[in-house]
């Protein structure tokens, strides 16, 4: 029992604050990360995620709070004595050293015997499939190969904690998708606990087992990707992650098994209760892909549908996003999968259409 | 049609490029290579009473080509020349080393200083150029003679005992016209030439590399030796060449600050030209000096170019 508890808080961040001359880049943040977890700090630039990562690595000193890794308080430990390694944004590979020497750099610093260094370097090169490139200099490699060298370099010392700073930020989209999976596979095969920083929500969702959404130095929500996406806690999180329609309304009925919310363009029937009182202001969040679009009014009742005019269409190949102008003047974004190559009754600009959704599609936000 | 048109514009562009690159080469050709060939020619000419003879002469139906190589033979035989060459290389080497030892930390902290203070620091490095070089070297004469305050300071602090022990001055209290004053003057004069290329190199270094080194277990000191120094190699080489090459042939500073034991090749050359009036001998000395500097440089450059090639 004690062991699992220690595992659950392998990395413990307690009330960490970083104050830059009165500006709180990180503001009283606490977090437990379990052993073997891949944890993502997600936020737009300037939200404090990089500062938090730099405090973990030891490049910044927290103004308040403490960081405990495997029971050891890291306060006062310089970066070169911390049992963690970082994969830097755009890699920071040593340009004067070959791939093999880059990977061996950390091992040589800790005085690993020569034979062991070369064995370890070979193993790392094999892990990232760069055996042929051992003697090349970093600038002779493609972006994807450099990324893998950086990964190998940061794993060579078998760190207790791996820090990734925008690991895929320097790669183009196609390569990024392939690399995401490959990177996760390597990290999991090594079994290292990992904290990554990214502004790319797709990257955070596909790679991490848990995500913390950060804004203005604080965590807004911490949870597994699907939880963050499907049950966002706040308006900001709902809006930040993915696409969403936000409709302000008031709570009319609140029962144990359902509630009814009235908004400008329609009445929502939500298939679960919220603990609120009738008359309180709430926001309904609806993901565009959970809405259906048709030419005809849905058969059943008064709830969960709305009529509008198609004002805008964005074709993305696998799906199309329609912008529906509603009676109140608001816009409803609806995403429809393009499951067929042609459709006879294709909806297009200026068409009238009905949007409807199920009683489980909503998220009701009270803050 | 299009191909020839493209070829035409390409040729035009090439011509423009050739002009821009060609001009400096023409300059070097006119003011370095031709003079060098002339000097080379003079060095193998026969000296007459005041003038040296032409290499090719036609007299009485006899075409003669006279190549006098004895000057070069003489250089290898008379220990005076060898000593002067060795002294020149030695003092140039020590000057370069001292400039590097003083200039590197200076350039390093200048490059790491706040961006707002860097221009001021840079200005200070270049400030000495506002006064004549000759005046500045002359000023050292005053500072190092018996009553000069630098001399007082060195003698007062007992530093001159160490200098005697190091063989840099012959006796305590005598600083002028010694190897010490010579090297001091050369270091003082050439220090900016070491600092500026080093600064240029260190200022553009990616500081994240140092963080990466620290992250991988290198203390700041180790990171400096394993990352900063190797990455500033180009600056070190450039600065060292800018100091070493002119120091080898330096004439003014040894003349003003040097002494009898610091005979350098520049002085020997001067004597051959203007005291002995033996131009062929002087030219031979000059040719040997140029070769002494150029040959190692050429080998070094070739090696560098090959290393670059491998890296590509």
In short:
Chain A is built from nine helices and 20 strands. Chain A has helices spanning 2-8, 49-57, 99-109, 114-127, 143-155, 173-190, 201-207, 225-230, 235-240; strands at 11-20, 23-33, 38-42, 64-69, 72-73, 84-87, 161-165, 193-198, 210-215, 218-223, 245-254, 259-263, 267-270, 281-286, 291-294, 305-315, 319-326, 331-337, 352-357, 363-365.
Would you give an account of this structure?
The complex is a heterodimer of chains A (367) and B (312). Chain A has 367 residues and is of the alpha+beta class. Chain A has 2 domains: 2-236, Rossmann fold (3-Layer(aba) Sandwich), CATH 3.40.50.300; 243-365, RNA polymerase II/Efflux pump adaptor protein, barrel-sandwich hybrid domain (OB fold (Dihydrolipoamide Acetyltransferase, E2P), Beta Barrel), CATH 2.40.50.100. Chain A has helices at 2-8, 49-57, 99-109, 114-127, 143-155, 173-190, 201-207, 225-230, 235-240, and strands spanning 11-20, 23-33, 38-42, 64-69, 72-73, 84-87, 161-165, 193-198, 210-215, 218-223, 245-254, 259-263, 267-270, 281-286, 291-294, 305-315, 319-326, 331-337, 352-357, 363-365. In chain A, the strands form 4 sheets. Chain A has a 6-stranded mixed β-sheet with strand order 6-7-8-3-9-10, sandwiched between helices. In chain A, helix 3 (99-109) crosses helix 4 (114-127). By secondary structure, chain B is mainly alpha-helical. Chain B folds into 2 domains: 2-65, no CATH class; 78-277, Orthogonal Bundle (MetI-like fold), CATH 1.10.3720. Chain B has helices at 2-43, 70-77, 79-112, 118-126, 133-144, 149-156, 159-165, 179-203, 208-215, 220-231, 233-248, 252-257, 265-275, 279-311; strands at residues 56-59, 62-65. Chain B is globular and about 85 Å long. The A-B interface holds A 57, 59, 78-81, 85-86, 88, 92-96, 105-106, 109-110, 137, 139-140, 153-154, 157 and B 206, 208-209, 211-219, 222, 226-227, 230-231, 233, 311-312.
